[in-house]
Specification:
Rossmann fold; about 40% helix; alpha/beta; six-stranded parallel sheet; single chain; two-stranded antiparallel sheet; 10 helices; NADP; RmlD-like-bd; globular; dTDP-4-dehydrorhamnose reductase activity; oxidoreductase; about 20% strand; about 300 residues
């Protein structure tokens, strides 16, 4: 079996690679089919997903059985001013991969976001709820989902949220570093969602990709909190002496509007392949403990 992973040097792509190479995850062993799989890990330098001819030629030559698209333009604020590039990466890129996947009869697993929702309400969004994004990032990611549906018959769309992991920049590292440097933090308490450990997401992506349970999935840590709650737990588990203060979003003056409530319900996972996503607090505690023991970052 051959797998093509795009955005392979990013946070999620790197986590998937780590699990495949370890043949194991914190949630358990992965399927033995991955032990001998041929994986092609690419970033934009190896294959620019925004160029259809490049993608078609690359996929035609490789003939993968599965394509996992982790590539995305994730700078939410910059998307507001860099519309064309956000559109190319988040919308055209998935379209190109979908067209190419269909031509070689490959499965396509595309990673999307909670930002496709408008943030109104207080009940976790299910896969059947109607998206209504409020930012350029959310709008371009939603269009990417639509292009995948239109151009590929064997697709999985996996929405996640508030992702953190060992690789790259994320909220956990930001809070840890700021807490140690300053001793006090101001964090918004009027946005709620699901912190998600990249280890858990990567494990589920590899599990889903081997099935024929095609469709739309939500895949986030269990339970919800505010960014303030999230920061408080990070500081607590890391053992840093730091005061965390609550502020409202309007104090930050960001370019892009964030959904005030974007908690997702993993209904499709529960109904098909099985939901093994950990409670967000347990997953975070395990992550920080691992950093203390092996990474030396705390």
């Amino acid at each position: 079996m051959k797998i093509l992973i795009t955005g392979a040097k990013g946070q999620l792509g790197s986590q998937i690679r780590s699990i495949i190479e370890r043949r194991n995850s914190e949630l358990g062993k992965i399927d033995k089919i991955y032990y001998d799989v041929e994986v092609k890990y690419v970033d934009f330098k190896e294959m620019d997903i925004t160029k259809l001819d490049v993608v078609l030629n690359f996929v035609r030559d490789l003939k993968p059985d599965i394509i996992i698209n982790c590539a995305a333009y994730t700078n939410v604020d910059k998307c507001e001013s860099d519309l064309d590039n956000a559109f190319k990466v988040n919308s055209i890129g998935p379209r190109n991969l979908a067209i190419a996947a269909e031509k070689v009869n490959a499965k396509l697993l595309h990673v999307s976001t909670d930002y496709v929702f408008n943030g109104m309400g207080n009940i976790p969004f299910k896969e059947y709820d109607i998206p209504q994004p409020v930012s350029v990032y959310g709008k371009t990611k939603l269009l990417g989902e639509q292009y995948v549906r239109e151009n590929c018959s064997k697709y999985f769309i996996v929405r996640t949220a508030w992702l953190y992991g060992k690789y790259g920049k994320n909220f956990v590292y930001t809070i840890v570093n700021a807490a140690k440097e300053r001793g006090h933090l101001d964090v918004v308490d009027d946005q709620r969602g699901n912190p998600t450990n990249a280890e858990d997401l990567a494990y589920h992506i590899l599990k889903i990709a081997l099935t024929e349970e095609y469709g739309l999935y939500h895949c986030t840590g269990e339970g919800e909190c505010s960014w303030y709650d999230f920061a408080c737990r990070i500081v607590e588990y890391a053992g840093i002496d730091c005061t965390v203060n609550q502020v409202t979003s309007d104090k930050l003056n960001r370019a892009a509007k964030r959904p005030s409530f974007s908690s997702l319900d993993n209904m499709m996972l529960r109904s098909t392949t099985g939901n093994e996503m950990r409670d967000w607090e347990k997953a975070l505690e395990a992550f920080i403990e691992d950093l203390k023991q092996s990474e030396g970052r705390i």
